[in-house]
Specification:
It is a single chain. By secondary structure, the chain is mainly α. The protein contains eight helices and no strands.
Length: 203
Amino acid sequence: MNLESALLNVGTFWLLLTPHEYAHAWVADRLGDDTPRREGRLTLNPLAHVDWIGTVLLPALSSLFGFGFLGWGKPVNTNPYALRGGLNGLALVALAGPLSNVLLALLLGAVARLASGSVPAVADFAGLGVFLSLYLALFNLLPVPPLDGSKLLLAARIPVVVYQELARFGFLLLIVAMSVSNLGRWLSQGSYWGARQILGLFW
């Protein structure tokens, strides 16, 4: 129960979440849906993307008590009927967020390498960012609403009624899965392995 570490994780998570949500909005806009633009989501302003429960409270508690890292940002609303490709376009919008975090992890890996000799504190922060950015990508690919992976279920044409039922209990499913299973540990291990591979590219 390290409060300082938990707060650092939350702050870093919020910074990483901003380009993630912006990527959703940007791809939706490029595919013809102006909903994110009209709702003020086509921006890199962190306040536009914060969900105070999913971005601050739950990440702090899950990090503090050590059952993985549970969190998300304010969902970017999209209209599948306005997207080129319909539900296939929705899948591209959903994948844009995790992909942006993988690219950001690569960028932070380069920053960590450049700062390692002159500014170790920046290198440590960037290294933590690599890990959390990959964690955010993996976590959001889980096929549970409101996470990005759930939109892939729609693109796979599962019945809408099934998706709606899953969405009713999605929040509870995530809490239970992270609390009583090894899901959080598996996500952490996968993110740690990926971070080592990325950092290894620059050393």
